[in-house]
Amino acid sequence: MPDFDFENKYNGVVAGVDEAGRGPWAGPVVAAAVVFLNRNCNAYLLSTLNDSKKLSPKKREELFMLLTEEAQKGNVLYGIGEASAQEIDTLNILQATFLAMRRAVEKLSRQPDFALVDGNRTPVGFPCPVQTIIGGDGKSLSVAAASIVAKVYRDRLMCHLAEQYPHYGFEKNAGYGTKAHIEGLQNFGVCPEHRKTYRPVAEILKRAS
């Protein structure tokens, strides 16, 4: 289970950073940055936080609500950043992810002295020093919290986009390449939220041209 061991290696304000949505064919990539200013906060929250992929949607929503409550108390800070499908197509997914991460950190009301970033690629142009942690969302509580904030925020966003573009099942697949999504592309073509450089979408566009 994640703990504060990585955070304890550094002085000052330490942010955990993670992203959601690198793989989907549609929608933005979303990143979150989370800082625990007071580690003596909700004990259930701290004991339950984990890699968002290991938690059910219901549990993620519950933990997101608790993080929001702790933020309202001043115990936690979080910032959310996005890079759009258009930015992903222009920059590539890696650089767009870095952009979303920078935006998330910049949204924090207090800028961190250090950032712990999930993965093995160091984001470029960060406003503070960075340590990357492979599997960080299962090792660092700050990164685990960031993974949950990013995932819940993005899933909610994709449900909203499903109302605008109802043919692709975004509310269920979050933009991933499910059977319903493929059928939607085949029957209704590409919408503005699709990542046009992703191969399946590019192939649909090529056939349509």
Would you give an account of this structure?
The protein is α/β, with parallel strands linked by helices. The protein has a single domain, classed as Nucleotidyltransferase, domain 5 (2-Layer Sandwich), CATH 3.30.420.10. The protein has eight helices and five strands; from the N terminus they run ββααβααββαααα. It has a five-stranded mixed beta sheet. A hairpin with an 8-residue loop joins β1 and β2. α2 crosses α5 and α3 crosses α4. 46% of the residues are buried. The model has no long low-confidence stretch (mean pLDDT 96).
Key traits:
single chain; 209 residues; alpha/beta; Nucleotidyltransferase, domain 5; five-stranded mixed β-sheet; 8 helices; globular
Order of helices and strands: EEHHEHHEEHHHH
Q: Pick out the low-confidence regions.
A: none
Second rung of CATH, namely the architecture = 2-Layer Sandwich
Determine the CATH superfamily. Answer: Ribonuclease H-like superfamily/Ribonuclease H
* Gap from first CA to last CA: 50 Å
Output the number of helix runs. Answer: 8
Outline:
Helices cover 44% and strands 15% of the residues.
Topology:
Elements: E1 14-20, E2 29-36, H1 43-48, H2 57-73, E3 76-83, H3 85-91, H4 93-107, E4 114-118, E5 130-133, H5 141-164, H6 170-173, H7 179-188, H8 199-208
Parallel strand pairs: 1-4, 4-5
Antiparallel strand pairs: 1-2, 2-3
Helix pairs in contact: 2-5, 3-4
